[in-house]
Amino acid sequence: MNSGTVSILGCGWLGVPLGKHLRNRRFSVKGSVTTPEKFGLLRTSGIVPYRFVLGETEAELEDPTFLETDVLIISIPPRRIDGIERIFPAQITQLIPLILKSGVKKVIFISSTSVYPENLQTASEADALLPDKASGKACLYAENLLKNLTDFETTIIRFGGLIGSDRNPARFLLKSDRAIANIPVNLIHQDDCIGIISAILEQDLWGETLNACCPEHPLKKDFYGKAAHISGLPEPHISDQTEAYKIIDSSKLQRLLKYTFKYQSPMDYLDSLTPKQK
Predict the structure, then answer these.
(1) Do residues 214 and 265 lie in contact, with contact meaning Cβ atoms separated by under 8 Å?
(2) Which residue from 152, 173, 259 is spatially nearest to 224, judged by alpha carbons?
């Protein structure tokens, strides 16, 4: 699929630059936001704007032509609120009848590596899943709701922690006074998120579940220590206690899509920052 119409449900930090990229790749792009005040940003990005609000008990879609599309990309990460393991699947449940009514045949669902527990494992798509975080439980439930339907094909992308653009990783140090655990990180740059989604569309890779994370996993102390140095912040305090962790294996994605990451390591992103960004 090298052209056609793509609808992005959730035009936020990832959805807007993704829409711009797909426009440049000859796709017609529709995008949803929850308030009309954001329509201008979408229009200036070449994205046709729609208002779409998913609730627990109803979905508000003012213009159903949003779902007249070749591919629907669902990019609405679960919020960090109480009860999200119940609320987020309920939102996807409200969406499904609209997808079925529209006749959409291809869906990309943006999920998260939080579906994997922190149990000292190298996590692959074949693993049995017992998430220990509420967000992971919410994503896994939503994944299964979509995968179990046969009216359309769903490819699921489990992204690691998102970096790039305006997301300075040193912000993590400002938000928390916790010591940094000496464990590996599982991160992915915005450019690679967009590149992977684009590759799925261009190669028609449907019905798959893919981990998407930088192939290299530096230790938190090294990554956040360098981020702090670049941003002029004090070096983070490193915990001497052992914590559970996981290492996300993205080899399946690299093999099926023949995809080469722009940022093999999160450290490559830090190395790329300009003086202005620093």
Answers:
(1) yes
(2) 173
> Taken in order 87, 163, 216, 220, is the CA torsion positive or negative?
negative
Q: Is pLDDT above 70 for 276?
A: no
3-state secondary structure 128-165: CCCCCCHHHHHHHHHHHHHHCCCCCEEEEEEECEEEEC
The answer to whether residues 133 and 114 touch, using CB atoms and an 8 Å cutoff, is: yes
> Does pLDDT of 278 surpass 50?
no
Structural domains of the chain ordered from first start: 4-166+188-218+247-266 (3.40.50.720)
Structure-token pair, residue 28: 């017609």
CA atoms within 13 A on the CB side of 14: 26
Q: What is the pLDDT of residue 84?
A: 94
The Cα 162–Cα 164 span in angstroms is 7
Which tens digits make up the pLDDT trace of 143-163? 999 999 999 999 999 999 999
